[in-house]
Amino acid sequence: MKVRVDPQLCQGHTLCAMNAPDLFALRDEDGHAYALGEDVPADLEPQAKEAARSCPEQAVVLF
Amino acid sequence: MSTEQAPTADAERKKHVISLDRHSPRYRLEFAELATEFHAKCPVAWNDTHGGYWFASGNNELFDIARRADVLSNDNDVDGVRNGYVGISIPPASASAGGKRQRGGFLEMDPPDQRYYRQALNPYLSPAAVARWKPVIEEITRACLDEVIESGRIDFVDDLANIVPAVFTLAMLGLPLKDWTVYCEPTHAAVYTPPGTPEYDRMRELQMVMGQHLMRNMLAVRADPRPGLINELLNVEIDGRRPDEMEVFGVVMLLIGGGFDTTTALTAHSLEWLSENPAERERLSRERDTLLDSATEEFLRFFTPAVGDGRTVSQDCVINGTEFKEGDRLWLSWAMANRDAKVFADPHHVQLDRKGNRHASFGLGIHRCIGSNVARSVFKTMVTAVMDRLPDYVCAPGGAVHYDTTGVINGMKHLPATFTPGRRLGPGLAETIERMQRVCDEQRLAEPITVRATTARL
């Protein structure tokens, strides 16, 4: 599983980093999210799915 | 198009008609039933009250509409120099004493101006920026509770949830902390006081005093710069221009309005619910390391402090089969979308560990609440402190005073409670505010994260 945050859709709700702190970080200057890496370790796949499900803007892309 | 066809076409376009006065008690008292009915029958309806406007309550429908900034406008064209749009309130906000509507800062602007403002202010309000203030927020909260801890009685609104957001908002703005009372009452009262009452006249007087205080202090910041949101706004360039003082004033009033009543409303409702559900309160306190985040999001979903926002359709378009015309007004009901069973299982119940909670309480799209990180941080600090220091509090039966109507904010005026008295931990509020002022000044806490990265030291 791979993950990324669509920067055109992300509005800085911060829920991905709240639900999956090992996969996402928030930029200091505006709180918008980015994935720490593209590859999701197998044990973090549930976290990645929860981050995608709970994003209000549906900006977390799993592929 | 012939004139004979137009009414029929319009009737077809607005085939799902509702009559819901959002500013009536019915909207508050029958909220869950109305939401369920609309979701089943008409997730996008034409509401024939207040001049007629679209009412989007379905979660999926609202998701598709709210993010279409290309066809929606927030503009409040108070000078009548653009399209004459009237901003985000339905019905439109009434004119002030000068006979002119006041623009609600960048929430009543469209890009690119709106984007310039947000880029300028985000470094003061991002999660990293807010985290620097944690010790200050905790200390103000501690002092509020110390004021009442020996008495065994508290009004959670008056003694806590009104104070912490107000003092902290002034700190971020760069205003004198001790003057929080000048801003507190008129800001809350403006939301719940109906026009044509003696209370309304008093509120307008307090608003005048607040406005004068703010203008005086803005000029003082200009003359003798001190860090904070006001200083940023006085120096910011918006698409190559420097906003005048009235425009800055409108932005500051937006930040105050957004920063005060919403967090108060969320905190009061959550504390009332935790009083009514003591087992859940104990669980939240015990499992706070894993549960406080999801509980906070669930309270946000369930109580949705800012219940919705208005828009004006800026060009003819069709979204999910609904035909919108340029100039149509539209209400985005964040509160009802948050209760849609298609997205939230058992939507009318609070589940502190709810998963997939993609609530819309901070709005959706480019106007996402810029203070959302402040709200979360202040809320969590207050609720945690109450669980620690007033673990057995009980809200007085029948004592809670909810707003009569919740057309703008789902708020509360009073929430009295009793608890087993405890010991003070430090100085009272006035002395603490004085000390926090010194800390703010000496450490320049209100600088943006791009200038100052370290956490406050008390």
In short:
Chain A contains two helices and four strands. Chain A is α+β, with helices and mostly antiparallel strands.
Describe this entry's structure for a reader.
The complex is a heterodimer of chains A (63) and B (458). Chain A is α+β, with helices and mostly antiparallel strands and 63 residues long. Chain A has one domain (3-62): Alpha-Beta Plaits, CATH 3.30.70.20. Chain A has 2 helices and 4 strands; from the N terminus they run E-H-E-E-H-E. In chain A, the strands form 2 sheets. A two-stranded antiparallel ribbon of chain A has the order 1-4. Chain A has a two-stranded antiparallel ribbon with strand order 2-3. Chain A starts with a strand and ends with a strand. With 458 residues, chain B is of the alpha+beta class. Chain B has a single domain (5-443), classed as Cytochrome p450 (Orthogonal Bundle), CATH 1.10.630.10. In chain B, 49% of the residues lie in helices and 9% in strands. In chain B, the strands form 4 sheets. Chain B has a 6-stranded mixed β-sheet with strand order 1-2-3-9-6-4. Chain B is globular. The mean pLDDT of chain B is 95. Chain A binds chain B through residues 11-15, 17-18, 26-31, 50, 53-58, and chain B through 63, 67, 118-119, 122-123, 125-129, 293, 297, 355-360, 362, 364-366, 368, 372-373, 449-450, 453.
